[in-house]
Design brief:
The protein is of the alpha/beta class. The chain is built from 4 helices and 4 strands, in the order E-H-E-H-E-H-E-H. It has one domain: Alpha-Beta Complex (Spore Coat Polysaccharide Biosynthesis Protein SpsA, Chain A). A 4-stranded parallel β-sheet has the order 3-2-1-4, sandwiched between helices. Helix 2 links the parallel strand 2 and strand 3. It is globular and about 40 Å long. The two termini are 24 Å apart.
């Protein structure tokens, strides 16, 4: 996929979510797949000493649209977002939280408003 074809990047900071990341990740994939757009998911692990990054590596093995970034220590949410933004290649960047504070159903509406 050419870099200019990437339409949507979803950037998610992650902090100590190894037990909770799979259900939100799978739900996000469902929503993004229904969009019919080229996308990537960038998850920035904020250096916590749990198994989050190992879980992300396992997901990445089966899903090349997922990119995991690991900060070497806990720099905080802003730094994790920044690491994701630095690597994002989509024409539109959407931010989310790993615990699904944001309603995934809002993504199609948001994109519809942006591209109008």
């Amino acid at each position: 996929m050419a870099h200019d074809e990437l339409e949507v990047s979803v950037v998610i900071p992650l902090f100590s979510e190894d037990d909770n990341i799979e259900p939100p990740y799978l739900r996000l994939k469902q929503v993004l797949n229904r969009l019919g757009k080229e996308y990537e998911i960038l998850i920035a692990d904020d250096g916590r000493a749990d198994a989050s990054f190992e879980v992300l590596k396992r997901f990445h093995a089966d899903d090349r649209s997922l990119k995991a970034v690991r900060l070497r220590r806990g720099f905080g949410q802003s730094a994790a977002f920044g690491a994701g933004f630095d690597r994002a290649g989509g024409q539109v960047i959407i931010t989310m939280h790993a615990d699904l504070q944001n309603d995934l159903a809002d993504i199609p509406e948001l994109l519809g408003r942006i591209v109008e």
